Amino acid sequence: MVGDPFWSNIFKREQSEEDALFEILTQIPIFQDFSQREFKKIQGILHRRSWGTGEAIVQEGNPGFGMYIILSGDVDIVHQVENGSMQKLAQLGAGDFFGEQALLDESPRTAAAIAASPCKAIGFFRPDLLELIESNPRLGLKIVMRLSQMISVRLRHTNRLLKEAREQNAQQT
Amino acid sequence: MSSPTSVMPLTIRILLALLLIAGLSLFLYKIHGVLAPFVLAFVLAYVLAPIIDRLEGSGIGRTSSILLVFLSVFSLLGFGVFAAGNRLTVEVRELTDRMQRNESTQSLFLVHNKGDAPLFIDGAEWEYVDGKPNQTSFELSDDVILPLEVLPGQKREISLSFMPDSLLFTQTNLRLELGGNRAGQWLVLPVVGNLRHGNERVPSELGLKASEYQIRGVDLEPNWVDMGEAGPNVFTDIGKMAETVQPTLQSYWGDDLDLVTLIKEQGDTLINTLLGSTTVFLGGVVSGLTFVVIVPFVAFFFLKEGRQISRKVIELVPNAYFELCLNLLHQINGQIGGYIRGQILATSVVATLAISGLSIIGLQYAFPVGLLAGFANMIPFLGPLIGIISASIVALATGGTLAMSLVGKVIVIFLVIQIIDNILIQPTVVAKSVEMHPLMVLFVVMVGSQLMGIVGMLIAVPLTGILKVIVQSIYVGIRGYRLQ
């Protein structure tokens, strides 16, 4: 049944910037299943930034500080090889994320992230996560568990790849 | 590795940033009198923030959490003030008056000769209003030499000093004996001291009296003099005690030893050092309106919107320095927060122990002295010394014949408190976040004292800790971060 055009226009709910952000964030494994209420609680600790084309979001070798979630634009993940040239490892777009391991420790970044086009991203950083764990242990633990699960999946994937590579190597020899 | 051409601009940028910080610091120092309520609100916000964060985390809204905590804290404070009654307020006022009171005041008046012939003042005497013999609270200053000639149309200045031995309202007349062709006539000048302790009608009564005493052709300007407020202070009392022991001490150290003058001079220096710049800073806080209204108001907004304010500031930072600055902010936050909360707790414990201990030994003004000792304990090295010295001074001033034994008890009490503080309190509650060499700590505390009195001594260490974090982070930034 078609809704009444008069009343539905008066009470039409315009999608706000916050709603759009909420939709993007809930696509990220760390923030999956977050309610609107939980999202509101972490909104205060997220940092919105903008970068121009060619600007570095993170530099390779810098101490890790946190993760970035791309809202719009493209980001190249690049790595400096032995001869000094830059090797592009991946290109990320809206909804992708990188640097999540820096939420756990300060190890140097293993690659650089360069804006391939004007882009906007959300930063989520380790000190803020630690403060969240202190002030809201339940929510902080939820994020940390999700992070651990993500890293665990990647580790299993890496182990599988390593196992396959060894088996291939063994077959060739 | 950065190329030489990119290192120079970065160095210059860092120097500019440091100049900016120095300029901002100078500006803040110039307006430090106005800053007092904001600093207090900032400290209050830092102390209450973890509790409010926890409440917010449990599901209560931020504003509701702040209001709930404010209600609890200010109810407790209100109850404390009510329970203590007027006692603390009265004792603090009495003790402050006794410490800071002027022993003597000076003033002057002018003798205006409106006649055609010279006026000669041959002598001067003092009398009570009701005709009692001369009293000694008032004197002509040493530079007034009689007889004095006042030429036609001339105004001559005569200085007076007032050094009473009590706080009571004192009124007298200065009678100036005239000579020459006015021999037999007297100029009479009503003079009062400690007018605050007199009744409200005095000024109008004196005005009427002065016009009755007037002689044609000679004006006294003003026609009655208020010498202000003066009276014995703590060091006068100690000086009187010193007078009794001085002969004994002089027999050992020789007649050159002038203990009374030494106490008076060093006492004035001590008070000025401790309280001089502090009163400018505290002037912004001592006003009741400021304390009750502005501090909670500002603290509320620091708590509600502090995070947004710091985010807005961070948004202004260029991308290349963003992570470095955010890291710096968090480290400073950790430094300040841990230090303030730990010190507040340590201060509370030390103040409670001091008030209890001093009350048990029967020291007068135990409440304000114990509070002072608690707050002073925040100052590294010198704080405990300030506590002992203050309590000892009060013991000497109020102890009467048992003053020396009371001082001994005070020292024992403070030794016990220091042992408890250093073994139990400091290691467990005070954050180790500010790590500085003891010489550095002593230096910055002295600098703080020079700039802002006691308040300067209190904030010197945490402020230096913040500066240390800033410099270290900038250094790490240059070394560890590849800054564009």
Describe the protein's architecture and organization.
The complex is a heterodimer of chains A (173) and B (484). Chain A has 173 residues and is an alpha+beta fold. Chain A has one domain (16-172): Jelly Rolls. Chain A is built from five helices and eight strands. Chain A has helices at 5-10, 17-25, 36-43, 126-135, 137-172; strands at residues 47-51, 56-58, 66-72, 75-80, 86-92, 97-98, 112-115, 119-125. In chain A, the strands form two sheets. Chain A has a four-stranded antiparallel sheet with strand order 1-8-3-6. In chain A, strand 4 and strand 5 form a beta hairpin. The radius of gyration of chain A is 20 Å and the shape is globular. With 484 residues, chain B is an alpha+beta fold. In chain B, the strands form two sheets. Chain B has a five-stranded mixed sheet with strand order 4-2-6-7-9. Chain A binds chain B through residues 41, 44-45, 47-49, 51, 55-63, 65-66, 125, 127, 131, 134-139, and chain B through 50, 53-54, 56-58, 307-308, 311, 314-315, 319-320, 322-323, 326-327, 330, 480-482, 484.
How far do the termini of chain B sit from each other? 11 Å
SS content category of chain B: alpha+beta
Q: Supply the number of helical segments of chain A.
A: 5
| Total beta strands of chain B | 9
For the sheet with most strands of chain B, the description reads: 5 strands, mixed
Helical content band of chain B: 55-70%
In round numbers, the mean pLDDT of chain B is 79
CATH class of chain A: Mainly Beta
What's the N-to-C terminus distance of chain A?
70 Å
Rounded to an integer in angstroms, the radius of gyration calculated over CA atoms of chain B is 30 Å
